[in-house]
Amino acid sequence: MKSKFATVINCMDGRVQDPVNEWMKARTGATFIDVITEAGPDRIMASTATASRLILKRILVSRDSHGSKEIALVAHHDCAGNPVSKAKHLEHLVQSGKIMATWSLGMTIHMLWVDKNGGVELISSIDS
Description:
Elements: E1 5-11, H1 17-28, E2 32-38, H2 41-47, H3 49-66, E3 70-76, H4 86-101, E4 108-114, E5 120-127
Parallel strand pairs: 1-2, 1-3, 3-4
Antiparallel strand pairs: 4-5
């Protein structure tokens, strides 16, 4: 049986790693999660073209080498790398999703919010 991969662009904050990986495995049926970490990835993806291109290179490795068909971008409560309100995080997720959709990845992109209790909420999904 071939293993299935999914991809996550997550904050480096260890509090959100396990809940997001578990959510992605349950949602996608993945056996393994390729994790790309940054401090405040929603801010980076929404506003920093150079960093976004570096993250894109990592996404393509996951897609092309591991066959990942679904990816999640994560924002979370109490983020030290992007210390803004939940509303601002959600704006960053929406903006990031629009940018990622222009990359024509052929992947489903999920925008996720992780609350203070580790609960994962699906904000939106986009097929790109």
